[in-house]
Structures are given as C-alpha cells and as structure tokens.
Backbone:
C-alpha cells in the first residue's frame, strides 16, 4: 500500500511484479532493514522526474508521521496549520540527518510570521530563548518547532484566525513560491470584456482564477526573459492599467488603485529580471546566503579550533620534551657522578633555554587567544551591523511609502482647492446675474400688475357670460333628458310587442330569423346614456350656442 501510494503521488508507474520479485527471498518481509530501502531507491526514487505535486507528497509524508510524533497537548493552531509549519521546517532545516532548524532560521521564520500578523518583533524575548536553546542543543526538531509556534509564546494577544492567516501567507511565499497575489480586472482577447480574476505571481508564471480559493483556474501567463511590463493610460472607463507583453500575446490588466498597479508592475519586472539573470526566487536566494554565511562562520570557527589544537599539541610536545630531558639528566647524574658539576651546568643552561622557549610559546598562545577574542568580537559586530542594515532598509522603505502617500495627498488637496475656487467664482458670477435679473423683474412688476388687473376684470365679465350660458345649457339638457325617458319607454313597449310576435312566429312556423331594420343614423352617447337627438341636431345646437357667445362678447 505504501509503495502504491508513493508511486501515485510521485507520478511513477507502479510495478507489482518487481515488488514481488524483490521480496521473494526475504524471509523477514518488506519492512526489514535490508529489504525496503533498496527497493525504494531502485524502483521508486530513481524514476522520479520532478513533475509531481510536492504539496501532496508532503501531505502523504505528514500522514505517515504526524499521528506518532505530534504533541498531544492542545495547541493554538489547527492540524492544517501544523502541517504547513512542518513543510516550512523541511524547507528551512539543515541538510543533514536528523533534521533540525538552527536558531538563525527560527528567528527568520518567527520574524516572517510576526510581520504577517502585523505585530512588533520582540528581539529581547527571542535572545533569551536563543540563549536557553544554545545551552542545551543546536536547534529544534519539526515537532518542537510546531509546539513553539502552537504555544503562542511569540504571538501573544493574537487570535487563532490571525495566526492561521500568517502561517498560510508564509507557506504560500516559501513553499508555493507565491511572490504576489490579489484581485484585478483582465481584458478578454475575443469578446474584449473586463472580468475580475484572482492573480497569483510565481517565479516563472502568472496564473489567474475565478476566486481566491484557487479551484477554478482560467489560464496562465508564462513569463520568460523576453517578457516586459509597462503602464498604460486610462481608457474605456478603466483606470490603473498596465500591459504584460509576451512573445505570442499581450495581456491588459486593470488594478484597483495606483499603489496596487505600481506594486504589481515592480513585482513582475523583478521576476522577469530574475529570469533573465537565471537567479532563484528571493526567499530561496536569501536562504542560500544565510546558509553560506553560517558555513563561512563555521569554517572560521573550525579553523580557530584547529589552530588552538595545534598550539595545544605543540605545547604538549614541548612538555614531553622537557620531561624527557629531565629524565635524561637524572639518568646521567646516576651514571656519572664525576661529571656532576658539568651536568649541573648543562642542566641549568638547558633549563634556561627551555624556559625561554616556554615563555615564547606562552606569548604566542596569548596572542592567538587575543586573536580569537578579536575575531569573536568582529563577528558579533558584523552580525549587529547586518541587523542594523536590515532595520534601516525597512525604515527607508516605510519612509519612501510615507513620502509617496504624502505627495499623493498634497496633489489631491491642491486639485480640490482649485476646483473649489472655480466653483466659488462660478457661483459668484451666477449670484451677480441673479441680482441684475431680480432688479429688472422688480421694475417690470408694476407694469405687469396693472395689465393683470385689466385682464382680471375682462375675465370676470367673460365668466359671468359663460355662467349664464351654462345655466341655459343645463335647462336644455334637462328637457332633452325628459324627452329621452319618454322615447325609452316607447322603445321598451315596442320591444315587448316585437318579442311576443317573434315567439308566436317561431312556435307556428319553426325557427325563423327575422331581418330587422338597423338605425339609419349613428347613435350619440352622452355622460347620462344614449342621446335624445341626432348628430345634425347637435351641430345645430352648437351653431346656436356659438352665435349667442359671439353676441355676448
């Protein structure tokens, strides 16, 4: 099962026949010391091409070892976050077994997590922890690192969600090589429409997805040394535009604001420059530099230790020589009593000579110790200078961002003041115009008032005449309504007679459809029902009313 899963994850074809052949003569089984490791190296690891999902491979290894080694005590991070810390440990650990992460890399990781959480780095607290760590061991194992981060010792005051987001951000940068990510608008190549996409920048590719969950991938922009990025002016109602030019096609992108636009342009240009130079991603290059610095310091320390051992060996040899000479002098004193004076004189001379040499060796040893102390002091000063330069670089970056923001704010305020001055001038001119119009209106009011009074008198007279005509029409309407009621009664009587006649005819002669004469003139409809007069009579009445109106005027 383990071999099959390894082959699946590593994209290697599984050969069950080779597995059976390999373990056929092994009575102890595939988990024996001499059984599985040769098979793993020969039939699985040697066939790996590198085109496998490293995250899935890490997850499988995590499944094999987490349950046995993960601490049972409650942690402030979830199992998924613990897995990501474990993968980061494998990236930052030293290249020797058993794997450990040295204090310098622990400090680097904790600083990255603290920056991602938006908190301040506690250097003094870490120095105390580093001193306590160096007294007991060289570094931490993966499970000790998970306990350290999960205990919240360096993330006090932060909730679980903030710590989880920080771990995910560092995991994306160090493991997934995510240099930058965020939402932007992309212009289509066929329909030319703008669609919001989640962009992810990696060392040699830009992938864009429907959303930040990375489930629905829409396409890739492959980067190489021939690519370039340039800013575009605003057009088609879109702002903060820039263009990514590749060999086969170009991509128009719209950022949310000018700051994001500049950040993306700088990040993509930096990535293209690294591809042209053949350099690794920034975090991998920084890790390699830290490792080379540690190796250099370790080599210098080993060289100093070697020199100290050589001095100690030389001193021991001198001590042995002195002891040999002393024994020879004692033997010579026993063999030749007659040469005692000469031997004593020779012994004194030899002692003086060796004493001088011993003093000289002591001075050389003291000088070497002073050199060792000086080298240690220079090393501490160098490390302190490196930390000061890193802090100064961060401060310079923050100052540059503040200056850019201040310039943008100043330009915005200046434009606002100019617009307010223009609006104030326009309003002042408009008020003066209104004032002149008001004066003209006041002058015209008196004349119009007299004219309106005359018109009112004329309209009152016309209204009285119209009221009289209206009363006359009301009388005529009542008379017409009475005539209509009489005609209506006559029609009902005639209809009743006709109906009885139709029934009789139908009873005696069968179904007969009588042809009835229609109305010769179209009926007029009033607000009270059918009119009692024809259209000609209505026209006559209108002429009469118009004549009366003309006579009254």
Residues:
């Amino acid at each position: 099962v383990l071999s099959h899963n390894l082959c699946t994850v590593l994209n290697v074809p599984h050969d069950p026949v080779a597995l059976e052949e390999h373990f056929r003569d092994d009575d102890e089984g595939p988990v024996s010391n001499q059984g599985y490791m040769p098979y793993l190296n020969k039939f699985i690891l040697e066939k790996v091409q590198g085109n496998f999902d490293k995250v899935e491979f890490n997850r499988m290894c995590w499944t094999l070892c987490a349950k046995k080694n993960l601490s049972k005590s409650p942690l402030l991070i979830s199992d998924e976050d613990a897995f990501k810390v474990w993968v980061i440990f494998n990236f930052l650990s030293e290249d020797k077994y058993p794997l450990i992460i040295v204090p310098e890399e622990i400090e680097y990781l904790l600083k990255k997590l603290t920056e991602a959480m938006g908190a301040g780095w506690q250097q003094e607290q870490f120095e105390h922890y580093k001193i306590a760590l160096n007294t007991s061991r060289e570094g931490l194992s993966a499970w000790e690192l998970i306990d350290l981060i999960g205990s919240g010792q360096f993330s006090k005051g932060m909730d679980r969600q903030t710590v989880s987001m920080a771990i995910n951000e560092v995991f994306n940068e160090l493991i997934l090589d995510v240099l930058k990510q965020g939402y932007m608008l992309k212009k289509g190549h066929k329909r030319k429409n703008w669609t919001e996409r989640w962009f992810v920048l990696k060392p040699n590719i830009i992938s864009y997805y429907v959303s930040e969950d990375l489930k629905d991938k829409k396409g890739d922009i492959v980067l190489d040394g021939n690519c370039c990025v340039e800013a575009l002016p605003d057009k088609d109602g879109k702002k903060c535009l820039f263009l990514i030019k590749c060999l086969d096609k170009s991509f128009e992108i719209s950022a949310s604001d000018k700051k994001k636009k500049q950040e993306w342009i700088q990040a993509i240009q930096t990535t293209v420059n690294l591809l042209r130079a053949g350099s690794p991603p920034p975090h991998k290059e920084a890790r390699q530099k830290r490792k080379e610095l540690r190796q250099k310091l370790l080599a210098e320390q080993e060289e100093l230790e070697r020199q100290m051992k050589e001095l100690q060996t030389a001193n021991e040899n001198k001590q042995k020589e002195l002891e040999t000479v002393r024994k020879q002098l004692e033997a010579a004193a026993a063999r030749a009593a007659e040469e005692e004076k000469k031997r004593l004189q020779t012994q004194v001379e030899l002692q003086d000579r060796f004493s001088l040499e011993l003093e000289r060796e002591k001075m050389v040893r003291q000088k070497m110790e002073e050199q060792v102390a000086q080298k240690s002091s220079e090393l501490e000063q160098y490390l302190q200078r490196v930390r000061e330069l890193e802090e100064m670089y961060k401060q310079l970056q923050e100052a540059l961002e503040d200056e850019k923001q201040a310039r943008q704010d100043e330009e915005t305020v200046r434009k606002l003041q100019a617009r307010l001055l223009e609006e104030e001038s326009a309003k002042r001119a408009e008020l003066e115009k209104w004032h002149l119009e008001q004066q003209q209106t006041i002058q015209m009011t008196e004349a119009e008032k007299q004219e309106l009074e005359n018109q009112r008198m004329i309209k009152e007279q016309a209204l009285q005449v119209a009221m009289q005509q209206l009363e006359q029409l009301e009388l005529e309407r009542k008379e017409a309504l009475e005539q209509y009621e009489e005609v209506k009664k006559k029609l009902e009587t005639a209809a009743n007679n006709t109906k009885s006649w139709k029934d009789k005819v139908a009873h005696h002669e069968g179904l007969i459809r009588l042809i009835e004469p229609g109305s010769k003139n179209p009926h007029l409809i009033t607000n009270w029902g059918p009119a009692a007069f024809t259209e000609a009579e209505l026209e006559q009445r209108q002429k009469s009313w118009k004549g009366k109106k003309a006579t009254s005027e």
